[in-house]
Design goal:
Layout (H helix, E strand, L loop, with lengths): L1 H9 L2 H10 L25 E2 L2 E2 H20 L13 E5 L3 H13 L8 E5 L4 H9 L6 E6 L6 H18 L8 E5 L3 H5 L6 E4 L16 H7 L1 H20 L6 H15 L4 E6 L7 H13 L17 E4 L10 H6 L6 E6 L7 H20 L16 E6 L4 H22 L7 H19 L8 H13 L1
Parallel strand pairs: 3-4, 3-5, 5-6, 6-7, 8-9, 8-10, 10-11
Antiparallel strand pairs: 1-2
Helix pairs in contact: 3-8, 4-8, 4-11, 8-9, 9-14, 10-14, 11-14
Length: 467
């Protein structure tokens, strides 16, 4: 660990961290701060960007969200026909979906929401149509999340849902059922999205870091603002630990450095995440975006090729399901995969003995990975010496969930510092969007363009022929 800590010091992790918390434009390629930490900062803190105290702005929006949530929950804010909202549909993709969906799936296992939430993300029309089949438009609130309202998936699904609403409450009533979350809500209007309620986010919050913002509005309404406050307090506690604790005892720093060791020194290409909690079944997909979109890069912040391997491929599932799916490979396969195992000492479930068995399974997997098993029969032998990191908490709560997310956020930041990359841009995502626009135009025209590459041209011709 001493060598890894020396590496962290050489990479100036502490000074980069301090610059992030001070609001410096550490997202250099976009000239932006990365101030997701301001979203959960105490109201007494002050972070000034371009002459504006962003903490004060965040607090203003939090108060607006709390008032809105209270109004919906107590029936003072209702739909166009005067009926109380009982269901929420969250429309977004990437961080505007993965974060809220994770929070809903986790907290609805341990708390009783006042409204039911559903999530629509994919542009596949089957996704949105199946969700709409389960809802009564007159009782449905729709939350549409997009920083710029230029995201194709959100616009497509938003328009389909608004047509569905109009068929039930009339064109004039659609807006009363819709809230938008955006950097500039008027862009939603320009895109043809009607809404009566809007909540701000800011350019300095990346989508994959936005779960502490108004992007989580659906859950704030469903569970209440007090639960959201608890969620943010967990994130804030980890922020404070990250800033105040020496590197050698700093949990996000240690996690980040272990990740660097596994990926860059040992050459481990993938990382598995296995929560022993059904409530965290969406945690691995959430981390896929957080880790791979942040650090899946080959060019440094100085615009030169990196000298080592960066982000691992992240995957996983819940325990004990994973033991009947892929743990065989982790124990005896030719690829060595570091594993994060996550568990809780307490459960809110009635059958505590089953929870004991669940945790026993997790401890057994960590033991088996570490020490393996000898056998005179080669096919029964397990080599061991396979790394796992075990994360334990007292129990799953809104506060614990927030802390867990912040822990991984900061460990990703530490890795980005060591690798010398910008963890806050995503130009690989932008290229796909640009190419999709061009190909969509060719589909609408009924033929590939003359300058299209041969492979894509053949695919388009086959698709158009078989529609």
């Amino acid at each position: 660990m001493d060598a890894l800590l020396e590496l962290a010091n050489e990479a100036s992790v502490s000074s980069h961290r301090d610059a992030m918390f001070a609001g410096a434009p550490i997202n250099t390629s976009e000239g932006q701060p990365a101030l997701h930490i301001a979203l959960r900062a105490p109201s007494t803190h002050k972070i000034v960007v371009d002459g504006i105290d962003v903490v004060k702005e965040v607090q203003r929006v939090r108060h607006l969200m709390a008032d809105f949530a209270t109004g919906v929950r107590n029936g003072k804010i209702v739909g166009a026909t005067g009926k109380q909202f009982t269901h929420i549909i969250n429309v977004g993709i990437g961080g505007s979906d993965l974060g809220p969906a994770l929070v809903w799936d986790a907290l609805s296992q341990i708390l009783t929401p006042s409204l039911h939430c559903s999530f629509v993300s994919n542009i596949d029309p089957v996704d949105v149509e199946k969700v709409l089949e389960q809802h009564d438009a007159q009782h449905t609130l729709v939350v549409l999340c997009s920083k710029t309202f230029s995201t194709a998936e959100t616009l497509s699904n938003g328009r389909i849902i608004q047509q569905w609403l109009a068929a039930s409450v009339g064109e004039a009533g659609v807006a009363q059922h819709c809230a938008v979350v955006s950097v500039d809500p008027q862009r939603a209007t320009a895109a043809g999205i009607a809404f009566a309620h809007s909540f701000d986010i800011w350019p300095w919050v990346g989508g994959r870091y936005s779960v502490a913002s108004a992007v989580n509005l659906a859950n704030i309404v469903a569970f209440g603002s007090n639960v959201f406050d608890d969620f943010l307090s967990g994130m804030c506690a980890v922020d404070e630990h990250f800033v105040e604790t020496p590197l050698a005892k700093n949990i996000p720093v240690m996690m980040g450095l272990i990740g660097v060791w596994n990926r860059s020194i040992l050459g481990r290409e993938t990382q598995a995440v296995v929560p022993y909690s059904t409530a965290l079944r969406l945690f691995a997909p959430y981390l896929q975006q957080l880790i791979m979109e942040s650090n899946g890069k080959q060019i440094s912040s100085d615009n030169v090729a990196v000298a080592t391997q960066t982000s691992p491929v992240v995957w996983g599932s819940i325990g004990t399901n994973s033991q009947h799916a892929f743990m065989q490979m982790l124990h005896q396969g030719t690829s060595v995969v570091p594993v994060d195992l996550i568990g809780f000492a307490k459960t809110q479930a009635t059958h505590g003995d089953a929870h004991d068995s669940l945790m026993a399974n997790m401890f057994a997997q960590a033991q088996a990975l570490a020490f393996g098993a000898e056998s005179t029969e080669p096919q029964r032998a397990m080599p061991g010496n396979r790394a796992s990191t075990v994360l334990m908490a007292n129990e799953l709560s809104a506060q614990t969930l927030g802390a867990l997310i912040a822990l991984y956020e900061h460990s990703v930041f530490v890795q980005g510092c060591v690798w010398g990359i910008n963890s806050f841009d995503q130009w690989g995502v932008e290229l796909g969007k640009k190419l999709t626009q061009n190909i969509s135009q060719q589909i609408a025209q009924g033929a590939p363009s003359s300058d299209q590459d041969a492979s894509t041209s053949q695919l388009l011709q086959w698709y158009l022929k078989h529609q």
